[in-house]
Amino acid sequence: MHRKDFLELFGAYLDVQELSSCAQGAQILSITYEQEHAAMEITTVFPSLLEKEKLGQLERKISSALGLSSVRIFPKYRPDQLSEGYFSEIFQELKNRNKIVNGFLEDASITLEGDSVIIGLSHGGYEILTQHGCDREIEAIVREEFSKNISVSFDGVRALDPNEEIYQEILSSAPKMEPPVIVSTPVSKGNGAKKGRKETKIGKISFDISDLPFEPDSLSVLTGRPIKDKPTPLNQINEMSGRIVVWGD
Q: Distances from the Cα of 238 to the Cαs of 9, 74, 214, 233, 245, in angstroms?
């Protein structure tokens, strides 16, 4: 199959010598263009390993020059080119794919023995990485770029130390959520209150429930903020209602 030289086709759009030199000798395997989204994918064989940052610069230059919404370059290398030093670029690709990585892979050691890769963790995160399939995704990236099947496992410091700075960074980046308001099961009028274990009342219902089918003092807030607003009928709710209280199944 005839391969097209990368610079012969796109060299005119790379006005920076550094970008042209990193694509020297690269051969295009295929080009896919999606007209509806003005997106292009270029599968390219590179003679030497390329940093993801440089790859991103190539993509942005070509995208801007051709007026496309996006350009993705999928690099291909020889299987024997896979090295321990390239795994920092694989970790970057993992982040680009929106995998939950955070700082768990920072300072990680890499041991490459044949088709086995052991990643020695320095900041914990073993359970999070494996639960989100990061080991399988790393294997997929290597398979896509190097046409090589490997087995990835994590070792080293598996548990996250709460005293480490990275632990605090992860906590601070997590979304803040208010505790949900849970109301105990009300006692319907006419049925009588069922005897049972007494529940601790953390909050009270402070609005008038006289027109609702509940016994007075039969409602309590188990957790969260006290409920002060009277329920709004569902047929009166619209886009301007804002925060409201409702009741029912």
A: 56, 48, 26, 11, 13
Show the CA angle centred on residue 93, arms to residues 90 and 96, nearest 5°. Answer: 160
Asked whether residue 227 is assigned to any structural domain, the reply reads: yes
Q: Which of 51, 76, 101 is the last residue of a domain?
A: 76
Cα–Cα distance between 156 and 109 in angstroms, integer? 9
In a domain, residue 166? The reply is no
| Per-residue pLDDT of the chain in tens (249 residues, 90 and over written 9) | 568 999 999 998 887 777 888 899 999 999 999 999 999 999 999 999 999 999 999 999 999 999 999 999 999 999 999 999 999 999 999 998 877 777 889 899 999 999 999 999 998 889 889 989 999 999 999 999 999 999 999 999 887 666 666 666 655 654 454 555 555 555 555 555 455 555 454 566 666 666 666 666 666 766 666 677 777 766 566 655 666 776 665
